[in-house]
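User: For my dataset I need records formatted as: sequence, then structure tokens, nothing else. Please produce one.
Assistant:
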Amino acid sequence: MSKKHYDYVKPIIEWAYEREIMTKGRLTKQLLKSEQENGELQEAIESYENGNKDALVEIKDAIGDVYVTLVVSMALYDEEQTHSIFKKMKPTIDGVVTLDWKFYISEAKNQDTLIFKVFTDKEKTISDIAARLSSYVTFLSMVASMYDLELVDCIDYAYNTISKRTGKMIDGSFVKDK
């Protein structure tokens, strides 16, 4: 049986506990980390589309990294509901979606802005957050599909990279060792 994206939620949260992100981290810092990873995705797409075909690995890693930051953000917000929220997501793409790569860069910025707003708006409900997360994960799946990647493979790649990572918590954020 093949893995599903949500099969990584519990290991990601365990990793976040091991790195003290869950006990010393702050949601806003994690959302800023998501923004950073999102920026790396945008840069990788731009680089790939301008001839650096080696950037495909960076796209794969960045998609997975963004997913990891979304899981950790949700867990910091409400750990108890995190797995069930991700398990309900069906980030599948029906048919082929071919859009200009510049759209994906623009939409990545938009997704990041919207996720930050939903997590920090005191009026938003857990349903609002779940819907926004689902939209973001579906977007990540679309980007993966555009580059002939699978979302689960991107998550697996990123998780296997971060699981070996060392670092320390500084001011509410995990800073990896060089």
